[in-house]
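Deviations from the work plan: none for this task. Representative record:
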Amino acid sequence: MDALSPAQYTLIYNLISFTVASMGAATVFFFLERGQVLRSYRTELTLAGLVTLIAFYHYLRIFMSWEAAFDFTDAGALVTTGKPFNDAYRYADWLLTVPLLVFELIAVMKLSQGRGRSLGIKLAAAAALMIALGYPGEIYRDEMALRWTFWGLSMLPFLYIVFTLSVRMADAISEQPEAVRGLVSNARWFVVVAWWFYPIVFLFPMLGVEGSVALTIEQVGYCVADIVAKVGLGLMIYAIAARKSAIEAEGGSGQVRAAA
Amino acid sequence: MDALSPAQYTLIYNLISFTVASMGAATVFFFLERGQVLRSYRTELTLAGLVTLIAFYHYLRIFMSWEAAFDFTDAGALVTTGKPFNDAYRYADWLLTVPLLVFELIAVMKLSQGRGRSLGIKLAAAAALMIALGYPGEIYRDEMALRWTFWGLSMLPFLYIVFTLSVRMADAISEQPEAVRGLVSNARWFVVVAWWFYPIVFLFPMLGVEGSVALTIEQVGYCVADIVAKVGLGLMIYAIAARKSAIEAEGGSGQVRAAA
């Protein structure tokens, strides 16, 4: 690989640290604000906080791996140490967080018992399969035929999720109380759009973008995508849970006191 | 750069550590005292604590970077190690905390639903833009023309925030209950005045102050400004939330019990 410039190195270094801070802060926010919604919505905020907590852990590991892979000479020149930068932490992270993310989105809708659970499990399983199929393409990153094959395989569960969220969920949305229908619909479009980042960033090395530029695009892309997909969706789930709590509390069913 | 004297090195070292301690202590204070105010003001204390928590994380990183950038010879002489001191952590910090700070100030006012949210989002976006425009000026710190350009660009959203808080918010203040009107007005003047620190400290290297003196002024200036702006404003928000909670509880609406 051509050498990483100090500016590229520093940009990635600072962005990974920024992501650590964002994930940690979001985790504390979701866990503290969990008590602000009705009891029946607290599990969704637990899930939102778990997603960012798992990402916080993995980004700390990524930060340590990035630091270990490079060093500065006494004269201040940037050099590699021989230790590989372990990007597979991202796949370990996604294998846990991506199924949780779709599950949390379905859960906050409170569909009729059986339907919500069955839909949540199907989408979560598809999400896990999607990540597992992407991993070999990442490991054999210099063998383009293998990388394309696993990219293609991984796109199948990806498109199933996109199709389910954008087309098949229209009736689930119409079941929502009118005051949150817009918020819930926005949340699923948010997932559909934000998740396209990942297969596109994955493609860059296959489209002739090489060396340190490809590495920089990939790292910046994944950091930004993870903040948007995890913190962003979590905040939307929080807004839905808070709005639904306010509606149900106004209903005078005494649930406000129960939530205290 | 001319060499940092041991006294300058130690002053900065101790002040960074002092800031770590201040931010950590403030975080614990805001999170513990969150239960002392009514439920509807707890999110503001969550935000105040998140701001100091994020700063705590970044000041720990700044501390580690400062330690790694210098060393002492066996004879006790201060030398640089070749590892750069990474001051960009400050920009990563501000990109998260400055929008949260303005948002928390607007949130505690409890303006009528739509207005508060729209004003909060506009000011937070302006704050993020202001930081993002300052960053290139920091990275290319030896190129004075670039540094002036980005300082000037960054001043535009800065002046928009200052103008909005000091002039356009008069009616929002008059909406506040009489007993907290003074506190709320003070809090916005506090932001307007305290934030002037930053563009002024940024100017020093451009006004012919050079080398180790400029570095010392910059580090001391930013540490002091961060403590004032983050811990100081958080305490004012806490005072407003506590006063408003007391007023609403006296209103006899039974909200005290619900908040207990």
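The first helix of chain B runs from residue 6 to 33.
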